[in-house]
Amino acid sequence: MMDDMLIPTLTASEVASQCVDTPTATIVGFGSLLSETSAKGTCPGLTNFRVARVRGWQRVFAHPAAIFFERGIALPATKEIASLSAELGGPDSSFVVATFEVPAADVGPLLLREEEFDFVRVPFYALDARKADDSPLGYGYMCTRSTDDEVLQTRGLHEKYRQYLEPAFGFTSIWGEQWGEDSGIRPCPVYCRHCVLATRRDGVPEEARESFLDDTRLVDRTTTLRQYLADRGAHVMASTPPASLTDRYSG
After folding, report:
1. CA 94 from chain center: how many Å?
2. Are 227 and 186 in contact (CB under 8 A)?
3. Which of 7, 23, 191 is nearest to 101 (CA)?
4. What is the DSSP letter of 153?
5. Can you say whether the dihedral through the CA atoms of 44, 114, 143, 17 is positive or negative?
6. Dist CA 185 CA 167 (whole Å)
7. CA angle, 188 then 193 then 195, to 5°
8. Bridge-partner residues for 124, per DSSP?
9. 193 with 239: CB under 8 angstroms?
10. For the whole model, what pTM was predicted?
11. In the chain, N or C: fewer CB atoms in 10 Å?
12. Residues 44-89 pLDDT 10s
């Protein structure tokens, strides 16, 4: 994994400031937002939905998300608490994403909900574009790794995460070395199933479905999601959400 701090990252408010003089902003989604139906559930006013590929980044299940604890779908006993993020990878790293436009006025509120992330404006490419000299289709804002100092201290979320993580694990960290490659943190089953089902919806290209399975890694950065679902994660696709969350977590 390359050092994410080598590139400039933005907060939600900084992204909103960059979009003040534009009518729309481009969002890059890489989980359940791969489905246009799911994306419209989050961003009803979206336009120009399409799938593309980002290069030099990798998609990983590698950090705990407070929302899974809040909604009762985290499984701390087995460390099945991880959500998705993007981080810098090697020169050959890439994965399929969804890109779409949202009204610029909606960007700040939308990204503030992604409380534990930083954001990077990344180029995205046509699915069949493989050469380094291919021109990007455009640029969009993508959720990326942040730091504990930024999220827990600067954004004031330490107590929120402490109440969930300290009792179960004896520490409070989202992005620290405690969740390193040998930590054993695993995907939250209900959320992981939700993302897989989203890629199976009508209209999602096969390349996006296959990329989600083969270009998504677990925290060890070696095991693919496809491999995990066929082995230790065989239970994931049977992990249905509580009735109150069925609409939210069914792809």
Report:
1. 14
2. no
3. 23
4. I
5. positive
6. 16
7. 100
8. 138
9. yes
10. 0.94
11. N
12. 889 999 999 999 999 999 999 999 999 999 999 999 999 999 999 9
- Identify the bridge partners of residue 94 per DSSP, sorted by sequence position: 55
Containing 43, the helix (H) or strand (E) segment is none
* 248 burial level (CB within 10 Å; 0-12, 13-18, 19+): middle
Assigned token pair, 226: 């496809």
Q: What average pLDDT is seen over the chain? A: 93
DSSP-derived secondary structure for 168-190: HHSS--SSSGGGSTTS--EE-HH
Say how many C-beta atoms besides its own lie within 10 A of residue 137's C-beta: 17
Residue-wise pLDDT tens digits, 201-248: 999 999 999 999 999 999 999 999 999 999 999 999 999 999 999 999
Locate 86 and state its tokens.
Answer: 């993007």
CA distance 203 to 35: 8
Task: Name the token pair of 184.
Answer: 């054993």
- pLDDT at residue 131 in the model: 61
In a 3-state reduction of DSSP, which class is residue 50?
strand
> Long-range contacts: 207-211, Cβ < 8 Å, 24+?
207/51, 207/96, 207/127, 208/34, 208/51, 208/96, 208/98, 211/53, 211/95, 211/96
